[in-house]
Amino acid sequence: MNNKYTLSLGFAIALSTYASTIHAAYSIDTELRSLISQHNLSGDPSRGRVIPNINSPKAQLGMRLFFNKALGGNKDTACVSCHHPLLGGGDDLALSIGIGAVNPDLLGSGRLQLSGHPNVPRNAPTTFNMSLWDAAIFWDGRIESLAKQPGMNGSVGGIRTPNTSLGVSDPQAGANLVAAQAKFPVTSHAEMRGDLAGTMANTYVWTHLAGRLGGFGEGAGELPQPEYWLNLFKQVYGTPTSQAEQVITTQNVFDAIGEYERSQTFTHNPWQAYIRGNTQALSESAKRGALLFYKPYQQGGGNCVACHKGDTFTDEKFYNLAMPQLGKGERGGADNTHDYGRGNETKLYADRFTFRTPSLLNVEGTKPYSHAGAYYTLEAVIQHHLDPAWAVANYQPNRVKAENPGIQTETMQKNTFEALYKLREDQQKGLNPLRTARLSKTSIEDLANFLRALTDPCIKSATCLAPWLPPLHEDPNGLQLEAQFKF
Ligand code: HEC
Ligand code: HEC
Fold first, then answer.
1. Is 32 a member of any domain?
2. Handedness of CA 291, 297, 302, 306 (dihedral sign)
3. Contact 94, 368 (CB under 8 A)
4. Which of 10, 117, 285, 383 pairs with 272 at a CA distance of 20 to 30 A?
5. Distance 212 CA to ligand 1 centre (A)
6. pTM to 2 decimal places
7. Residues in the chain with pLDDT < 50?
8. Does the CB atom of residue 325 touch ligand 2 within 6 A?
């Protein structure tokens, strides 16, 4: 064989490999772009929304309240105890630990409860991107917009809260879903309330806490320097001569916290860049994952878009996926250990074990996953979706137990099998679009890589997140939570 021939053969092979690579890349991008337009995606979930700036006075006040243990009944818990920006807006635990932590300032993995048991029954979702929800907040949607108008964050048409019955607007709910939600953690004994005010009604707790901050009413004298809060509130809600009672009101406290949360909007991710035209923004694996995400089962896809819809990746509706039921449950069933999810709210059998579809934006940063934090990897939670019966039969709570000592698992199997049984019923009745799908290990990795392309790089950078952390040791009362991490 002469050299000339070898060279030209090599050239021909190289040329054809190059051509087929170009062809594959061309067709995957073409297919993806057609799915993007079919699903009407803009890549900008915050389009048309009013997002507060973290440097606005209200968000700044809200940030200081969010980080302050003065809002914990026993002064040992703050919102940030379970929702730290450096932990993706969550707590890195399967089930949250509120009051009675061994070290109240130690957050994330390593946070332990004095009693040994995490006493909060659910996994803490992230507080990032709360500005993007229009229908329902919490796993069971117990804070609910009655109008569900797209783009409004629940600011029109009334909001139902746990203070009112299903479908009934709470006149005190506040400006939007986020402000409405913020009032409730301080009323939960396990999360923040502790021993404050025995079994008195929620309004009593709120008034007491406002009084504690401002040094009036039932809370008078509980903080050495109430003028710290008075000055901050006056800058946002009053005039230099305002009295504490006028500006440190229940509504204002939770309005400010809500604005801080709404300022935590992180949506600039590679997927957005891809949709806007940068074809290089996604890896080949992430592109294959995107196809699987949007393709129906019949075309070999994972049909994820049936529920994780639109630019926010959620339809804000409720489904039973029979995710493992770890922990003490939410008072459901004969032995009170079940978590019926949405069924707790509607009291309907059809809603039993259903939970709100989570958004998948920044999901890479909010492990562990599912309403009880059963899964530590994206691959495992995706695998569960593809074959819940297999996943439940093979579920091992080893890592959950190692990272959350004392977590209750005794009733897990029995309760999860009940949810699985009901999932079959839901599917037969057409209530649940989930189907068993056999995807290869590579396809599951591709799907996970697509989900990783939904991460805003800001949430992984302490420097980028710095504006969302208050200056150290600012509170003269010493109650600002300065987080310690075990890493
Ligand atoms: C002890 C840990 C803990 C503390 C403290 C805590 N949370 Fe949460 N948070 C949770 C858990 C667990 C859930 C899920 C509860 C559920 O859905 O039933 C949650 C849910 C939320 C949600 C709903 C997110 C969503 O996607 O639906 C928001 C918003 C939130 N918390 C904000 C706050 C604010 C504001 C505070 C302080 C006033 C606070 N949390 C204090 C653990 C905590
Ligand atoms: C039938 C509606 C539905 C379909 C289809 C669906 N999901 Fe989900 N997804 C949910 C619900 C509901 C949850 C929460 C369930 C729970 O915790 O009990 C969830 C949870 C998740 C989570 C964990 C998020 C978190 O914050 O805990 C990920 C990741 C996820 N889904 C990805 C996918 C992918 C990828 C697909 C396609 C293979 C998919 N989902 C298909 C409804 C759906």
1. no
2. positive
3. yes
4. 383
5. 22
6. 0.95
7. 1-2, 4, 6-7
8. no
